[in-house]
Amino acid sequence: MELFPLPAFSDNYIWILHNRERALVVDPGESDGVLAWLAQHGLQLDTILITHHHADHTGGVAALREATGARVIGPAHEPMPEPLQRVSGGEHVDALGLRFEVIDVPGHTSGHIAFYAAPPVGEGAPLLFCGDTLFSGGCGRLFEGTPAQMLDSLTRLAALPGNTRVCCTHEYTLSNLKFAQAVEPDNRVLATHAATCLQQRAQNFPTLPSSIAMEKNINPFLRTAEMAVVRSAQTHEPSTTPDAVSVFATLRTWKNTFK
Fold it and tell me: Was domain 2-257 assigned CATH 3.60.15.10?
């Protein structure tokens, strides 16, 4: 099984997972690049997974379905390009020999879902397709949800095995890590990782996938109980209380205007 992040637009990734014969794609915001890549590699598109309704994640779905006959699977409670199979948290999706658990992760949008699969023993690390909920070093903006919802969603993802590959859908890592270092300037793991990511981007390599273990060490939105993060949030906004939701809300508002 091979995994590839196909660049799209200015900073999206359309994830492609394939077994050298059949493929699935995740959040295809456009179709032409996907079809060209599949043709180049001689692959048949089997399944399209969608995490949420935003156009940069769904814009290519109709054309891909028409061109390939692929089945489409997406969230139960969001506007979607019909027809598709709608799923919600606790359900499972079987594709390419893997069983994906559907996880409800509201916050960025109200009905956002993620897909998690644990491959057979000895056949690679688990996979998480998390859309715009968890980013490397950051998280999605709260367009439709609340801080409490997003924190709960992130906590659910953070509980996955540490070696889980975090396949988010934007190359936001450098800007996220710049913010993370403003929050935790003395985090040495973060500093080392940021330097590595700078080198990767300088060579036009993706910084993704990340891992759950790495994110728990560097991502301030997963570290709201760390005293250094709490102190930074309270310094930025003195009305912040030590509880995790208050700290998260301050961090998210701070990040929205951070340069």
Answer: yes
